[in-house]
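WARN retry 2 of 3 for item q-0093 after timeout on previous attempt; input resubmitted unchanged.
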Amino acid sequence: MKRIAFFCFTFLSIVFLNAQTLDELAAVRKGNTAYQQAEKLRTEAMQLVEKGGEMNTRSANEKFKEAAKLYQDAEISYRKGMATTKNFSKANYNLANALYRQEKYEDAGNSYKYVAEQKENDKSLRAKAYHNYGNSLLKQEKYKESIDNYKNALKLNPNDKETKYNLEYARKKLQQQQQQQNQDNKDNKDNQDKKDQQQQQQQNQENKDKQDKKEQQQQQQKQQQQQDKRQLDALQQNERQTQKKVAEEEMKKGGKAKQEKDW
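OK item q-0093 returned
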């Protein structure tokens, strides 16, 4: 990451230009001055961070804050430098540098892209623009797109070692990203399968519970019917015994038992 950080910023250099108006020229020069001061402060701050220590860290943070303000001032000046002639490629390139340092990677990428795609620009400037456009995309983790732009830069400047290094780095990051995506997809599938399995098990259990409840109700109903039948049989038996007993008592008294007639 230390090497990539170095290479990512290799082409973030100021491009001087001749603006078409005096006001634009003055604005661009002002932007260049602010940018150069910001770069100096940023370098000093990074050196303090490497030394370590509480005092150095505090001083480094102050320098980073000053540099951030100067990058912002540079951005404002560069935009003023293109107030009339918005198609200044070199001013767009400098603006992109200021935006990049502010971590406005998408906006910086758009400006680099504009410069890179203007075929009337010299190959060196276009190669730098493609390289830094690739850096902007790399910062956004758009690795495939960054690879395409590093390749475009190498078409214009085949021997650039920094671009070659960043290209290989982006390829490795893309591979890692794809592996992570594949793992995430696998995990999601496994989780979904597990969830589906749990839902199926739950559904099966619910169906089993319903079936068990139904069978239990049927069993209870059958038992109730059997109990009702036994009670009815008992009542009928009691009634027969009672009638027999009455008949026997009447016989003892000399009475005649009522008999059914055959017709």
